[in-house]
Specification:
The structure is a homodimer of 279-residue chains.
Chain A (H helix, E strand, L loop, with lengths): L14 H11 L5 H12 L9 H8 L3 H10 L5 H10 L5 H12 L6 H22 L2 H13 L3 E5 L4 H13 L4 E4 L16 E6 L5 H12 L3 E6 L12 E4 L4 E2 L2 E2 L2 H20 L3
Parallel strand pairs in A: 1-2, 1-3, 3-4, 4-5
Antiparallel strand pairs in A: 6-7
Chain A binds a DNA duplex (30 and 30 nucleotides) through α2 and α4.
DNA sequence: CGGGTTTTGGAATTTTTATTCCATACAGAA
DNA sequence: TTCTGTATGGAATAAAAATTCCAAAACCCG
């Protein structure tokens, strides 16, 4: 037998374990079994709702090959493998998907249809954020902000809600914070003091005030954390940590969901870090 | 036969059609068949991954009763019904699910894990919003705001980012708007003039300023649109239209995703309505 | 209460699906 | 090339699932 002894332990009992085993097993596999591995890897979500014959056809192998493959993975057979996926199958979706369709069907331009579009844009943005965020950069950003004497927040126009939300959250956690909101058109750049950090939030078209403040901070040696849309944004090269947010837009308006999720994450992480270090 | 002739047409071929038929059929059903209807209605998402025996057991009926039920719905049998759900099962972004698990696994308290939680909270909120929003109320809200001479926005603390986002969006669409942001602790309640409308955004604990402004507006006969968390919020009874947002919270912080999605929907719908009416 | 109708449960049957097995093809080593 | 062990496809079998059918129970109406 090819490798039944390589995994004397029982069958994987979670989807993660399954994926690990799939990876562990998949090199050094003969042609047909490799086809199985490839197809299964790319269609994990169909296992719960398919038959052996269907999957085998998809993979371009006879059913018996797929059976062998299940056994190599550690299952007694296909049924046992399928049970894993049927049990852990959480839909969450069908409801939502149906409702979304209903809303959209109300006719373009109706407020219900608009809602559907914005909800969906927000959801996609969030998913994109989860997929694309680099944990290292996130940690660095938290480090810079947690070390700061005071956190300055800059964000205008579309970024202003984000900045004000951060101000609210940080304040609730007793983190010294200053929101540069431009009230009275005062120039508060002298408020940036050594040891402080600046969080610069801006999206195309980048607001000059934010960029200017970032430049000022950077020149004075303050840590700048950027929350922006692309790595080539004008604040990016001035920054110690650059967080980019993939917002999906609908029409002329871009969702803020992902940006806010990232913002609140930063705020809470910073708050937690600081209180651990005894403020 | 019970009612095979009541639906001489073929089987439902979409999930919506299925649900309609379920409703249409479900009164005037004998005991066991009604149990089937109830159980199926509450477990639509499990049809794709269950056997007749499993579903029958869940519903507390013998398999044959469930078979009969499938036929009453218009299918030739269970298999045909199941096919509908298996086919329309859209892969629930396996990517996202995996990535989310990875992030969460980074250890509670790590910033990556926090991000995962906030993203998920936001996603759930958005889905909840799509599910629960009443289109009628949404339309009413849009009507009130579109008719207004000027739209006043009230929202403090956590609601402030929402209010400021609305101000930004409405302004971009040339809708006369006033953001009551409390700068300088000035009382701007005299700015509310006949024919204006107030959008009051507040969540527990409801900020007194917002409630006071809503009372003031209501007393003077202005249309008040509430964006709040429950129908029993203090601004609800003062309002001509009450939009409630189901935000999921994580820890002490509540997501704003759903609230913002609803806000931008309102803004765009109002903007569109007004420009159509030749503002 | 009695006769007809509807509903019900479960056993029997059919169909589908999973699984095994083996003859054959293939690949690599000598 | 021949030998040896692995890989493969498909036919045969076993298991599970779906579906039908019918006798018994419940119900309803007079």
């Amino acid at each position: 037998m090819t490798s039944s002894e390589a995994f004397p332990q029982g069958a994987p009992d979670t989807v993660e374990a399954f994926q690990e085993r799939l990876i562990a097993v998949s090199d050094g596999l003969p042609k047909r079994l490799r086809q199985c591995a490839d197809y299964i890897a790319g269609n994990i979500d169909r296992i719960a709702v398919s038959t052996v014959a269907e999957l085998a056809q998809g993979a371009g192998v006879p059913p018996s090959a797929l059976m062998r493959f299940c056994q190599i993975l550690g299952f007694s057979g296909f049924s046992e493998m399928q049970r894993l996926f049927r049990d852990s199958y959480v839909p969450g979706r069908p409801d939502y998907a149906t409702r979304l369709r209903n809303l959209r069907d109300k006719g373009a331009g109706s407020s219900a249809a608009l809602l559907a579009e914005f909800v969906e844009a927000g959801r996609q943005s969030l998913e994109g954020l989860a997929r694309s965020t680099d944990e290292k950069v996130l940690d660095e950003a938290v480090n810079h902000l947690a070390k700061a004497g005071m956190i300055h927040l800059a964000g205008f126009r579309r970024a202003f809600p984000v900045a004000s939300y951060l101000a609210y959250a940080l304040e609730k956690m007793n983190v010294p914070t200053m929101l540069h909101d431009g009230t009275g058109k005062l120039d508060h750049s002298h408020a940036l003091r050594p040891g402080d950090a600046l969080m610069a939030i801006t999206f195309a078209p980048y607001s000059p005030e934010t960029v200017a403040l970032a430049e000022h901070a950077s020149r004075r040696g303050l840590a700048v954390v950027a929350l922006t849309d692309t790595p080539i944004s004008p604040v990016a090269q001035l920054s110690a940590a650059v967080l980019t947010v993939p917002e999906v837009d609908f029409g002329a308006f871009r969702s803020l969901s992902a940006t806010l999720a990232l913002a609140i994450t930063l705020a809470v992480a910073v708050g937690a870090r600081r209180s651990r270090n005894g403020t």
